[in-house]
Design goal:
The protein has 183 residues and is mainly alpha-helical. The model has no long low-confidence stretch (mean pLDDT 90). The chain is 78% helix and 0% strand. The protein has one domain.
């Protein structure tokens, strides 16, 4: 199986639902925030990729993702402090770079076979389930944060719009239920 969906799921989980506002603030104040955020990414990757962590290429990919994520985020923090009026540009460039690296490492890893083949680990290979989880994060958290940066003034504080997030979660669930039903 190709791991691009798994890499993307781990990234978007760690960058959005697993990154509370306090951690975002700490990232802007001290390097410790970037370090903690990087550890959250590392732990999320280890959990999402657990069945294929026995593969050397996956281990190398996790290391590359961890190191580059920290480097990109630290650079973004420095640029945000130096030139806050371009915060939107830095936000979208940050996401573009992270996702480009994820795509590159998924090509590097190629196809991976989970070490354990039990019913529980078959969830990791169910592309529809992994895609559902990814789309759920994309259309709830990522959409909400990106909408804030795209539509609002960047100096306004971000506040989650749970009504929109719940609406989007219901829509994603209905779409995937339809795909599952007809598949």
């Amino acid at each position: 199986m190709n791991l691009i969906l798994h890499f993307l799921l781990a990234h978007f989980l760690a960058d959005y639902p697993f990154q509370p506002g306090k951690l975002v603030k700490l990232k802007m104040e001290r390097y410790l925030g970037v370090f903690i955020h990087g550890l959250v990414h590392l732990l999320t990757l280890l959990v999402v990729l657990y069945p294929v962590l026995h593969l050397r290429r996956v281990q190398i990919a996790v290391g590359i993702i961890y190191l580059t994520h920290n480097l990109i985020d630290q650079t973004k923090v420095k640029l945000d402090k130096k030139d806050p009026k371009h915060h939107r540009l830095f936000y979208f460039t940050d996401q573009f770079l992270h996702n480009t690296i994820l795509l590159a490492v998924s090509f590097y890893v190629g196809f991976a076979t989970p070490q354990l083949s039990t019913q529980w680990f078959n969830l990791y290979t169910n592309k529809l389930l992994v895609a559902y989880a990814l789309f759920m994060v994309l259309f709830t958290y990522f959409y909400d944060v990106s909408r804030h940066f795209f539509l609002l003034k960047s100096n306004e504080p971000y506040v989650r719009d749970y009504k929109v997030m719940i609406r989007n979660a219901i829509l994603v669930t209905l779409v995937f239920a339809g795909i599952w039903w007809f598949a």
